[in-house]
Amino acid sequence: MLTALDLVGTFVFALSGAFKGVRNQLDWLGIAVLAVLTGVGGGLIRDVLLGDTPPAVFRDERFFLACLAGAVAVIVAARPIAARWNRVMVADALGLGLFAALGALKGAQAGLGPLGVVMMGSLTAVGGGVIRDVLVGERPAVLDRGFYATAAVIGSALLVGLDTLGATVPVQIGVAAVATSALRFRAMLTSMHLPRPSPPDASL
Fold this sequence. Notes:
Helix content is 77%, strand content 0%. By secondary structure, it is an all-alpha fold. The protein has one domain. Helix 1 (2-23) crosses helix 2, helix 2 crosses helix 4 (62-83) and helix 5 runs parallel beside helix 7. The longest helix is centred in the middle third of the chain and has 25 residues, at 85-109. The termini are far apart.
């Protein structure tokens, strides 16, 4: 069940990468590359950092196929998908929660400390988006927009707390994923974001 959900999340993330490629007028190969790196980039970074090699996406090529399916869907039906973009973003928020929870769990199972677990969950959830934005020359959106990375950090931290309290793995995953997705949904509806400091006076 978790693998199926993981594949769905990968497909949705790949859609966002492919759309970024279309908006930046890349060719079909460029669109496919962005789709793949957005869909599996976070998991690749996590597995390499944890020494879990070859990374899971190379051991189960269905993840690459899910990314390529997302790229093909955008190339063939970009306009109909764009018209339903709100639904894609809902699925993206669900994928964010699942990836944060699964990434944090993998970090905990590898014996990392609390901060390491939170970092693994966050990297898994947002790593692909960061790679995507850097490749097209944009400041990564997760740094200052959409409460995206913040939601992943909070959800991963919840998993750490539940693990400390002795909660079962299904409870840890469920609560962390739901909390992350719920925070992302709220941000989508209310433009919620963290406070920003005022820029310094250039004359000082």
